[in-house]
Amino acid sequence: MSQTQEIINAGGHTIRVYRQRRRSIVMKTTPVGLVLFIPTRMSLRNEQLQAFVADALEQIGGRVVPENAPEITSTDELRALVKTWAQRIGVQPTRVSVREMFRKWGSCSRKGSVSLNTALCRVPRELAEYVICHELVHLIEFNHGKGFKALMNEHMPDWRVHEQALSEWMAGGTLD
Ligand SMILES: [Zn+2]
Prior knowledge:
Blueprint: E1 6-10, E2 13-20, E3 26-30, E4 33-39, H1 47-60, H2 75-89, E5 95-99, E6 104-108, E7 113-117, H3 125-137, H4 146-155, H5 159-168, E8 174-175
Parallel strand pairs: 2-4, 5-7, 6-8
Antiparallel strand pairs: 1-2, 3-4, 6-7
Bound molecules: zinc ion (ZN).
Zinc ion binds near residues 138, 144 and 175.
């Protein structure tokens, strides 16, 4: 993901392109938007590629995809929410990073570092807070067992509603 980002603009969408050692073309709807994986040396003008993209966009139809959703919460605000929730729960993450992730809304490590998907800037605020609360509770309970659920119930009684809403949110990611 370090090389200069190639972009295809088509059908009102901005599609990020990643080159990989692969033969086929794949397009994925991720929490951070549409992403196209193509063979290393394929030209963006390749006819097969253009037909693939047109077809894939037709399948997506009029659905809103994440990159077109308005920003609701800035990354600074996300970080401020982490501080607020960390105090509430009584934990102290060692590191907080906000970055693009294709599959996950958030994750945390056993060393106490929390990662949040930049896509959380574009979901309703309470869903972003749910992810923050979820990851911070993992600093106490690393699994999703009884202890985890008890803490979630204590700090965010309606967390199951948010969990469901998030899983239905456009291109759903998962949570660690
Ligand atoms: Zn989790």
